[in-house]
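Notes continue from the previous slide.

Worked example: a multi-chain complex. Inputs as given:
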Amino acid sequence: MNRIPLRPLARILHARQVGENPDAIERENLRIRHEQMRDKARQRAEGRLLVMGVMFFCAFAVIGVRMGHLAGSEPMEPRAQAKGASIAAQRADIVDRKGRILATNMETHSLYAHPKQMIEPERAAKALAGIFPDLDEARLTKDFTGARKFVWVKKKISPEQKQAVHDIGEPGLLFGPREMRLYPNGKLASHILGGSGFGREGVHSAEVVGVAGVEKFFDDQLRDPTREGAPLQLSIDLTIQSAMERVLYGGMNLLNAKGAAAVLMDPYTGEIVAMASLPDFDPNDRPRPPVSGSPSDSPLFNRAVQGVYELGSTFKIFAVAQAMDLGLVNANTMIDIRGPLKWGKHRIRDFHYYGKELSTTKVLVKSSNIGTARLAKMVGATRQQEFLKSIGMFDPTSIEMVEARTGKPLLPQNWSELSAMTISYGHGISTTPMHLAAGYAAIANGGTFIKPTLLKQGSPQKGPRVMSAETAARARAMLRLVVSHEEGTASLAEVPGYAVGGKTGTADKPKENGGGYYEDKVIATFASMFPAHDPKYVLVVTLDEPEENTGGEARRTAGWTAVPVAAEIISRVAPLLGLRPDIEPVQLAGITLASQ
Amino acid sequence: MTEMVYGSAPVHAGEPVLPKWWRTVDKWTLSCILMLFGVGILLGLAASPPLAERNGHAAFYYVKKQAFFGGMAIISMFIVSMMDPKTVRRFAVLGFVAAFVALAMLPFFGTDFGKGATRWYSLGFGSIQPSEFLKPGFVVASAWMMAAAQDLNGPPGRLWSFALTVAIVLMLSMQPDFGQSALILFGWGVMYFVAGAPMLILVAIAGLVVLGGTFAYSNSEHFARRIDGFLNPEIDPTTQIGYATNAIQSGGFFGVGVGEGQVKWSLPDAHTDFIIAVAAEEYGLVLVLVIIGLYATIVVRSLTRLMRERDTFIRLAGTGLACMFGVQAMINMGVAVRLLPAKGMTLPFVSYGGSSLIATGIAVGMLLAFTRTRPQGEIGDILKGRGRL
């Protein structure tokens, strides 16, 4: 590069001679050099900007060409329905504990159209409207004659319908294989299974996704191809479930109840052998969630795991058991039950007058609110909370259903002495029937808390100990007395040979808009175990607003409503469960016992 | 007498603002932008009802929001485009500093809206994504530094701007937001290129990009999955790309008709990242080509006007803004047609999104301000050139 030096000596000397400032020469040279530089930079930038402009233009052109190429090609869906594109069973079956099918898949077909390939779109539309009354002919004609290349006609069609469509002879009508979920038992165990729907859909397959119940909870597992379609085995027994639902349904109708729920649980393994919530639905045709009214009145609402209710006097056994476990009382300690028990403005009353004092056993047998409240006072609010927490009354149950997470118990915000007293007889705490079953299971299995589960278990669970085995045995003996004692509230639960033990609970229903309780609407519950001396099963039956009208006045207490229903369930179910009735044969006809 | 006492009344020698603006602004670019905005509303009508339904709003809730933010964007665009380059530079640099601080504070005060990347400030009534506003400010600030570096005895502006770029890219990658950091890097690279980058360095940068890409591929699962999905020739029809491809195919040349599209019901990002697929399905190739044409016109026309620009700063800043705008559109559409690996990037002025709309409005306003016709002193140059010879 040939640049003029900034201070050329000749010019500087000359300037000095004539008396000019030589710095001006430097400034002038600097300016010239600067301008040259800028000119060069500008020219270079011009060239580079041109390159960029051309590059951008080309890139946009490429995108445009690619768009055109894509737009000109056929959609992928028609190509995918080549021969042999049948789909294997993707979603695993669900079976009961004995391997009987609860949910399986059925291959059906979907119907779609390629209007571009249609010969007589109007005739096809008319014929289709004839085969499927729910399709609108005008709409189909519009779809078939429009610009669309692909139209879904029906998502699921039967083989007969498929043949009828085939007979139209229209080449533009095509079928795609489609797996659909089938619940062969209809309404049976509907709340447990939940239901399923279509997720993402293509022509040659559609994803079946669980929308509720175990179908949703185990959705990933059921769809997991690595499990190779191994069925999901539940702890449910289809036969027991069926018998229980039947009896519960009959009982609900007989007692004019709005709803009912029942849970049958194995207290050692935690398995739920049967669980029902009425009203129910058919998972093959799952109704839409209600848009108006309370969601808890919908058939989709699972009362057994979602519904939180004040379960009333069924909670008394927890207060009694804890007091005994702490050594505060024994079965025969006399407890003052003079009422009403005043606590601030609050008064605790009994249903009947039971005298001045009762033994602990009698407090439970006769269901004295005052008696249990006094026990709760002895135990104290803190220890009561610890105990109820240990038997799972503070958190939603961990049962494998998506709905269970919403069944969060309602607890008092401030657990005062008064709360402790009311909670001892089941008021001021709302839990689901499933919680109650788990709590009774702890008494039934000898004092350990186990988590209820819907999956078949191989062996008994080991849970944390919540009370001593002796306390549990004493509590069971008391529960047996509630049934077997002639003054017991659950005397109607006596099923010959099965030694039922349990506790009733009748709680007034709180008004929906808050502010007090209904006088004439109750939740009647019977929590039981059988046989009481060595319980194999725990059964909780809850009826919503039952009313027994055979007597003169309407009877709503659990002893007249939930108890007979539970007794009927036990008498039906116990033989099916393989329990042998423990009956002394009166006389063995024609046989003489050798030892006598 | 009055004049003798108080001096003569001040007279504005210059032209009034509006006529001058109208005379000098690039009307082609301006009309293309307004048309793009119209297309955005049109596609919002098609693409956003499913989203509104999912979120429980009235069908055209998001269209109304889009129109509102679009109006604000247009207004800010007009205001910015009426400023002279010096004012633009001042405001842009101030805005850049503010956005930079906001970006740096994101890890402490930002929210991720459950999407796994902390990119937003939640303001109760809405949210702000600082990186959107950072982009135009960054371009202007960098252009200023680079232009200063071209003066003899000027500061080392290129080095400064490079350090700034690295800092921003690191902060964005931490969010992580690889798309925006790639855009920032690209903007700086383009300006450096036009400012006269030596060829050797260009080659070195290309090598670095390849290395960085390899590093990200082997170290970021997120990134690797996207690339793998791109390299895999089989399109799974149940992926976003599969749906988009299908939509373009079923749209054909003239589309399936207004409101008849299906893709918007299956794609969660139909109103943002894949809006071009909705356009292709409902209106066909025709509208897509129009949209591409609009973007191409804006970018290419701005670049040609900047070729004549003699002020280094204006040239660089304009280039950066135009290229960033164009590349964002290109990436968005390139993803939909599987020319590029999946990368969430909005289609400027068309996709739904408040922050992005307003930030784009400001950026385009700056671009318009920089591409206005102004005396370039050609005659003076020629005379000077003669004198010099």
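Summary box: The CA atoms of residues 339 and 555 of chain A lie 24 Å apart. The mean pLDDT of chain A is 84.
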